[in-house]
Amino acid sequence: MFPTPIQKRSRAAQLTYQSILPIALIMWLLPLLAVMLFSMRPLTDFTNGNYWGVPSSFEMFTNYGRVFFESDMPRYMINSVLITVPTVVGAVALSCMTGFALGIYKFRGNLLLFFMFIAGNFVPFQILMVPVRDLTVNMGLYDTKLGLVLFHVAFQTGFCTLFMRNFIRALPYPLIEAARVEGVSEWRIFWYVVLPLMKPAIAALAVLIFTFIWNDYFWAIVLTQGPGAQPVTAGITSFNSQFVAQYHLMSAGSIVAALPPVAMFFAMQKHFIAGLTLGAVK
Amino acid sequence: MTVTPLLFLLPGVLFFAVYVVIPIFQSFQISLYDWDGLGEATYVGLENYSELVGDRAFEISLWNNVKWLVLYLLAIPAGLFIALFLNQTVAGIRLYKSLFFFPFVLSQVVVGLVFSWFYLPREGLLNAVLGFFGAGSINVLGDPTLATYGIIAAGLWPQTAYCMILYLTGLNAVDPEQIEAARLDGAKGRHMLWYVVIPQLRPATFIAFVVTIIGALRSFDLISIMTNGGPFGSTRVLSFYMFEQALSEYGFRMGYGSAIAVVLFMIMLVFIGYFLWSMWNEERQSGH
Questions:
Q1: Residue B189, pLDDT score
Q2: Chain B residues with beta carbon closer than 8 angstroms to that of A117
Q3: Domain span at residue B195?
Q4: Measured between beta carbons, which residues in chain A are less than 8 angstroms from residue B165?
Q5: Considering only alpha carbons, which residue of chain B is nearest residue A187?
Q6: pLDDT tens digits, residue range A66-119?
Q7: Half-sphere exposure of B265 (CA within 13 A, CB side)
Q8: How would residue B1 be classed by pLDDT, with cut points 50, 70 and 90?
Q9: Nearest CA to CA, how far is B217 from chain A (Å)?
Q10: pLDDT over 90 for what percent of chain B?
Q11: Pairwise CB contact (< 8 Å): A281 & B171
């Protein structure tokens, strides 16, 4: 193990390490801790210039309550859910199939198609922006959740295919051969043999895509406009102009907007990291 | 047997073609037109591109992209450093790792807001800390010479977390026997890291490199949230300038915007080409 395990070092080194850890963490999260502290302060603290002292009162419930009951925030949050969840389902479903086809079958152009998915996944969004916006407008889907979902599903299919194909490649191939010898049809092999084995990959992708899509901002401002369809990342800018310079409310608002992917991460940590670090180890 | 893979591929390929592959070519085409997005488009040849050459804002954006690319790569050594720091087995270390990683889970919008407040001249924590050490206050995002660096620093926060998690996973898989053997040979500290550990972390470094380059060239959210391109257009990058030209109050110049997007795409293509080439070699080696 590298570096040398701290247990093998002197007692002094161990104590130093143990005390540096929390300090380093606090420094690392300092900007965020500041925002958390802001979100609990009353307005008067800001007008009195008491930014960093002890809050004159703890107004957590009032501040967060106002975010939920006096703004469009709940609508934006619901929009985010209604955009994110269908995208996750769509992209995972499509890529299970493309990953299966590219991972199991040998045919001409297999690798070429696979590399097309990878390459498309890396392109800058701006090269897609004008045509995709145009297409969405022409389909009558501008400023709708469906318009965003369709694009996200298509784009995420690139990354998901890369992921699924490599996962399927690592499955024991003799299993599929055996099923073929038994005369099981290809659809049934996909459904009854491969899909059950893909559960960990599906879980990992689902949490990753959930986070990516929830956090998307660029496409939200390109393809949607108002509280009718906008997700929370785009909505927060309108929220902030509603509560201009009221840092206690803006802080609370952005914490609320950030919470779902954070909760998702802490709940599904193992899958999340497995997905993110795929390929980091040979 | 030959149709089956086709059927499995069809929906995915169709979606991907319509929303990703074809639009790339369409953007190339649009970049040759003068078009406001609604009315008739007029063919202008390479005029949009020749206009770019003399465009001061384009030049600034391009330079800022270079700054982003170079400085963003700091996330890789920084991530390795934190990973080495955290690669221990003491009580509660798992929670520490998660909390160090957690900025990556935040949306760039939230990161942007958090850092703009952090930098605020009066209310911001940065100046409170500087003041505590007796330094004068600075307005990071209001200063054209500092603003881009301030935004890049904000971007490095989640990016470093990402690289850290890649390296933590990589360190987990480092062959303990090689480490022990090197240790018997008297390798220690820096030498051990450079000659034994880092070579074994190659796959993690490659991915860290890919995601960091892509992240640097995709930077948009932070700029839009933190400065909106200002002050005086000093923080624009190509992705942001393209958006401004094509879709904002500065007018709907779809053709000109597409030309900027094409330039950005070409820059990205150099890296994409290199990534794909590496992966292609890998594929051929592993085979089936």
A1: 83
A2: 16
A3: 31-286
A4: 273, 276-277
A5: B4
A6: 999 989 999 999 999 999 999 999 999 999 999 999 999 988 889 999 999 999
A7: 24
A8: low
A9: 7
A10: 74
A11: no
Q: Give the count of domains, chain B.
A: 1
Nearest in space to A151 (alpha carbons), one of B18, B10, B258: B18
- Please calculate the CA angle B113-A29-A13 and round it to the nearest 5 degrees: 165
Domain boundaries, chain A: 6-65, 69-276
Q: How far apart are the CA of A43 and the nearest CA of chain B, in angstroms?
A: 13
A69-276: CATH number: 1.10.3720.10
Position of tokens 């996973």? Answer: B169
What are the tens digits of pLDDT across the range B71-130? 999 999 999 999 999 999 998 999 999 999 999 999 999 999 999 999 998 888 899 889
| Residue B148, in any domain of the structure | yes
For helices A110-122 and A145-169, angle between their N-to-C axes, nearest 10 degrees: 130
B63: domain CATH number is 1.10.3720.10
Q: Which residue among B18, B117, B173 places its CB closest to the CB of A35?
A: B117
Residue B200 lies in a domain: yes
The span from the CA of B68 to the CA of B233, in Å, is 16
- pTM for the whole structure: 0.93
Q: Does some domain include residue B221?
A: yes
- Does the pLDDT value for residue A63 go beyond 70? yes
**CA A218 from centre of chain:** 14
- How large is the angle between the packed helices B147-172 and B202-218, nearest 10 degrees? 160
